[in-house]
Amino acid sequence: MNLKAVLILLGLALATIFALVCVLLTRGRAPSTCQHLPPEQEDAEDGQSLVFADLTAEEMSQVVRYLQGNLGVQLVDASRAQPSDNCIASMDLQVPAKAEVLRFLDAGGARPPREALAVLYFGKQAEPNVTEYVVGPLPTPVYHRDVTVHKYGGKVPYHSRPVTGKEYMDINALIQRELKKAPLFLAACCESDGTDLVSLTTAPRGFKSGDRMTWFILFHNVAGTGYFLSPVGLEVLVEHKDLHVSRWQLRQIFYNGRYFASTGDLEQEFVAGVLEVIRLKKLQADAVLGSLRPRRPPGSPGPLQFEPQGPRYSVRDNRITFQGWSIAFGMNPNSGPRLFDIRYRGERIAYELSLQEALTLYGSNCPGGMSTRYLDGSFGIGRFAYELVRGLDCPYTATYVDRHYLAETDTPKTNQNSLCIFEHDSGLPLRRHFSDSPSLYYGGLRKNTLVIRTISTLINYDYIWDFLFHGNGAVEVQVHATGYISSSFLHGQGTDYGNRVGPHTLGTMHLHHIHYKVDLDVDGQLNSLETQDMEYEFVKDPWSTQNTIERPYLRRKRLEKEDEAAFPLNAPMPRYISFASPNPNKWGHPRSYRIQVISFAGKHLPINSSMERSVSWGRYQLAVTRHKEEEPTSTSIYNQNDPWTPTVAFADFINNETITNEDLVAWITVGFLHIPHAEDIPNTVTVGNSVGFFLRPYNYFNEDPSVDSSDSVYFSSEQDARACGANPLACLSSAAACAPHLPPFHFGGFLNL
Question: What is the mean pLDDT of residues 64-79?
């Protein structure tokens, strides 16, 4: 080998060694931690949004102390109160009147006094009742006033009060005592002595006003699994109306298609050999239908969303700002998430956007299933919004916020990290175009959205409540359903009401209907409702008169009265419905926001049903009414246990008043029919089980406002798309060459139950 070849080989060897060293050094060097930049500063707000802020734990405690010392009656802590006691049941912010708030926000008026709304059960009175007090001013209250008659037209009957945890405990103790009267039957049917059976409440509780009689469905309980899928065929009817717990009674027993007067009668028929018994084996944790334990070891981590320079949104107290958006957020312990004073580019789009109610109505050939119509606001949509799991319920790097509530105890409780806020990259363009002629260019904008999320666990179901704010000025509201289905014991013609999903389990058909309040203020408070849709007209072809052409044209209409603006559920509705301002945009059209509903709702309860008025909001997919302070909500927590004489009947809101150039409110119902199937085991998935609506600018602007986004991308064939100066996407390799700072995983959601 000559010297030249040796030198060439030596040079190649040195180059290879150098390259390997570089690779090894690069691999060994940890990437730098991402440096967070402060989010873009929005206009100073001076704490104005605190007018909508939820009560603090200290404020709740102050109200409790005030009520204990100023009502002149003994108050027992609700966690141990008997029905014959007086107690504080719950507490929330008393939201000030809209006119008062707007004077403060927009006209330099005085800040409205901060007040609480306290719900008290008075069982130790000659006429037991539920009373609501407004208490203020906070933080140091000195007055209270009874607002019950003003709100509901009279005292709230005691039987309509929501059931407390203590009442459920006393009912369960009664059921356990009664089960002990049928030991042989329980051993045969369920390999149980009754102590490993768990009961599930139904609602409403009877057939007429004054009833308080509830069917409870019994299930096998296996720790760490969803008992909702393991019914044993036994259901019991408990009467618990009397103020004295000792007088509560088991009224009926249902088992495998038959009804019995008592557990004693059930046991007697079993001993006599005339009762058909379905013998169930005691369930094991590894074989139960409802287990969510992983079946495979963890794989490689999936994609991780992070912000290389920190969040681009800001959260201060109860106010969020993001790329022109400003939102005040909160949580009603009963009805759930609520947003106020939603502004885009400094202009108020909506005064209030809030969840009102969630109805779940079941079918079955078992008494518990067929009588169930859950109104979840009565149970506590906001109260049962527990801690979110970082990295699964929300992105790992989201901002997590605590929520405080007071319910069924004199001590405020905190659901830590129960609301999350994050910017979401949908992986989809908000808009884009590739031009292939006559000039060559590309322009687009990523669909990045601000998301406010909370998740409520209401017995078996988990509802994911999302509020999304888009870069084009649109608001999107979504609800996703997951969790466990509820089930009945399969017997007889059970499959007329659902599908078999286990050896003895019937997944019962049901509907989910969700109601929202949307108080839009489009370019001011005074709006009108306009509809637009298409029709075809047949015209002579102008350039060939012997032929005709089918030409679509626009049919516009302004609705004048509330009755015209009440659109029945599942009936055809104009495709474009807008809240219109009297002021035009640059092109002469009214500045408007369009309501676009995405829903697959089931059929509403027949209007001749004795309880239909309590859920009469469900008659309409959209109803528009004039704003009234005496109509703040479409339902009430008392409608669940007395739906036959509802304290709030939404149908009464619609009385054909004029809705032209008025302060208007949209009430929106979304939902879906769910017929459970094998793939709902162990859990219902969110795929395909999401509904909601959009609030979209419609001639509100003179052009799409997202063109002003600093995230916009444009490059032409004459530019080098690889250059960071020409294309911000080319900057990502350096901007994102850092490691996100991930806080240690922590979950304390089991500590506060």
Answer: 97
Residue 42 belongs to some domain of the structure: no
Nearest to 508 by CA among 700, 687, 371, 309: 371
Are both 602 and 686 inside the same structural domain?
Answer: yes
Query: 374 pairs with which residues across the strands?
Result: 360
459: containing domain: 313-528+554-698
- Chain centroid to CA 599: 15
Tokens of 527: 């709006």
Number of domains the chain is built from: 3
Q: Are residues 514 and 405 located together in one domain of the fold?
A: yes
Phi and psi torsions of 40, nearest 5°: -55, 130
379 in the same domain as 518: yes
pLDDT recorded at residue 30: 52
**342 lies in the same domain as 407:** yes
Q: Do 500 and 597 belong together in one domain? A: yes
Closest CA to 159 of 207, 205, 215: 205
Question: Residue 46 pLDDT more than 80?
Answer: no
The CA distance from 81 to 533, in Å, is: 57
654 Cα distance to chain centroid: 25
How far apart are the C-alpha atoms of 707 and 630, rounded to whole Å?
42
436, 655 in Cβ contact below 8 A? no
- Cα 615 versus chain centre, distance: 18
Same-domain status, 150 and 261: no
Is 55 part of any domain? yes
What is the reported pTM?
0.93
Q: Taking the CA of residue 25 as centre, how many other CA atoms within 13 Å lie in the half-sphere pointing to its CB?
A: 6
Q: Which residues are identified as catalytic?
A: 376, 461
Answer whether residue 215 is part of any domain: yes
Phi/psi at 495 (5° precision): -70, 0
Residue 86 confidence (pLDDT) above 70? yes
CATH at residue 171: 3.10.450.40
Query: Under a CB-based contact definition with an 8 Å cutoff, are residues 359 and 483 in contact?
Result: no
DSSP, collapsed to helix, strand or coil, labels residue 208 as: coil
Cα–Cα separations (whole angstroms), residue 281 to 241, 271, 510:
36, 20, 28
Q: Are strands 487-489 and 576-584 parallel, antiparallel or unpaired?
A: unpaired
* 467 and 500 together in one domain: yes
Q: At 12, is the pLDDT very low, low, confident or very high (cuts 50, 70, 90)?
A: low
Which of 48, 702, 584 has its CA nearest to residue 345? 702
Q: Residue 738: phi, psi to the nearest 5?
A: -150, 165
Question: Which of 380, 384, 459 has the alpha carbon at shortest distance from 418?
Answer: 384
The tokens describing 24, both together, are: 């090894």
Name the domain boundary from 272, 304, 333: 272
DSSP secondary structure code for residue 684 in this structure: B
* Sequence-ordered list of residues with C-beta below 8 angstroms from that of 236, at least 6 positions apart, any chain: 175, 178, 199, 215, 216, 218, 250, 252, 253, 254
Query: What whole-number distance in Å separates Cα of residue 461 and Cα of residue 483?
Result: 5
Predicted local confidence at residue 6, as pLDDT: 47
Q: What is the sign, positive or negative, of the torsion defined by CA atoms of 530, 534, 540, 542?
A: positive
Q: How far apart are CA 697 and CA 687, in angstroms?
A: 28
Contact in structure between 184 and 267 (CB atoms under 8 Å)? yes
Neighbouring C-beta atoms of residue 532, cutoff 10 Å? 16
> Which of these three, 672, 698, 724, is where a domain ends?
698
Residue 62 domain-assigned (yes or no): yes
Residues 152 and 171 in one domain: no
Q: What is the mean pLDDT of residues 226-236?
A: 95
Confidence of residue 24 (pLDDT cuts 50, 70, 90): very low
As a whole number of angstroms, the distance between CA 119 and CA 138 comes to 17
363 exposure class (CB count in 10 Å sphere: 0-12, 13-18, 19+): middle
Determine how many CB atoms are found less than 10 A away from the CB of residue 549: 13
Reported as a single tens digit per residue, the pLDDT across 694-720 is 999 999 999 999 999 999 999 998 888
Specify whether the CB–CB gap between 465 and 453 falls below 8 A.
yes
Average pLDDT over residues 306-324: 94
